[in-house]
Design brief:
single chain; about 300 residues; about 25% strand; alpha+beta
């Protein structure tokens, strides 16, 4: 998923509020340490072995090269896309096992970083537009693009882990939201509805189906549970580029981000992390979907 406008830069360790009950449930609201601007490009990065192939932006901190036309995937490219998607899924499952009280998101980043490298791939987020880490970790009220730091996960948190890998010239991308310890019933329901939105959206995908129909399914199910759909982000094409056309606006999208309250987001001083404006929790699930004339295939399932 990407910002509707190009991202600027990102953050430092999170400062947190107190664990308390509020209108959205019982959880700890995540806050920035301060409102002072942060240049994430100056933050230390984990090393990458020289032997690994890496995307062009890994060296200069640039972003995707947006072409004016939709890239068409050839039959010869599909096996490589499958491999990248399957590796992303494997790494996400590894991250899921680490979602335990007391584990820091920086530790999750370290383990994911090392395992992606061990598989001969590059962690796609690393230095994309200057992003300083190898994975995005978004906790509780953070909608997306949370930067791993030294805050330990707490009993009752929910966390989205967004994994993208660059393998043999292709990106594979997936994310999911996980429960940490004993999450209250309202948090569990949020995560459940978000996952169901993704499943229902994928189920109607196929040749000739308009993007707006996909979004209609998501919004109808989200609203039936009393949730809003974030409009801060959009879906995107993926392949040789991390992000490419087509853009699919997130509130009519197959990468649903649901919020307990307002869908409006607030950009932190790091210019990466986006949290909900009212402190309600947010959950997200994401898959890569390949649509051909004859089939619909989820590459990251």
């Amino acid at each position: 998923n990407i910002l509707k406008t190009p991202p600027r830069t990102r953050s430092q360790p999170h400062n947190v509020g107190t664990h308390a009950s509020n209108r959205w449930g019982s959880f700890q609201r995540i806050m920035p340490a301060s409102l002072q601007a942060i240049n994430v490009r100056t933050m230390p990065r984990r090393p990458i072995p020289d032997r690994l192939a890496r995307p062009y932006y890994a060296g200069d901190g640039s972003s995707s090269k947006w072409e004016p036309t939709l890239p068409i995937v050839s039959l010869d490219e599909i096996p490589s896309l499958r491999q990248a998607g399957q590796l992303a899924r494997e790494i996400l499952e590894l991250g899921a096992k680490m979602c335990l009280p007391g584990v820091t998101t920086d530790k999750i980043d370290a383990v994911i970083h090392e395992n992606i490298i061990a598989k001969g791939a590059y962690p796609s987020p690393l230095n994309y537009s200057g992003f300083p880490k190898s994975v995005c970790t978004s906790v509780n009220n953070v909608i997306a693009h949370g930067i791993p730091d030294d805050r330990a996960l707490q009993d009752g948190d929910i966390i989205n882990i967004d994994v993208t890998v660059y393998l043999n010239g292709y990106h594979g991308d997936t994310s999911a939201t996980f429960l940490v310890g004993n999450v209250d019933s309202r948090g569990q329901e949020l995560v459940k509805y978000t996952k169901e939105c993704l499943q229902k959206a994928i189920a109607i995908c196929g040749p000739g189906v308009p993007f707006s129909e996909i979004g209609e399914v998501i919004c109808n199910h989200a609203e039936s549970g009393g949730y809003s759909v974030s409009e801060e982000l959009s879906g995107h094409g993926i392949g040789r580029e991390f992000h490419s056309l087509p853009l699919i606006y997130h509130h009519r999208n197959v990468i649903p981000v649901l919020c307990q309250g307002s869908p409006m987001g607030v950009m932190w001083p790091d210019n990466w992390t986006i949290s909900t404006v009212d402190g309600g929790r947010s959950a997200q699930f994401e898959h890569m979907v390949l649509i051909t004339n004859n089939s619909v295939e989820v590459l990251t399932d």
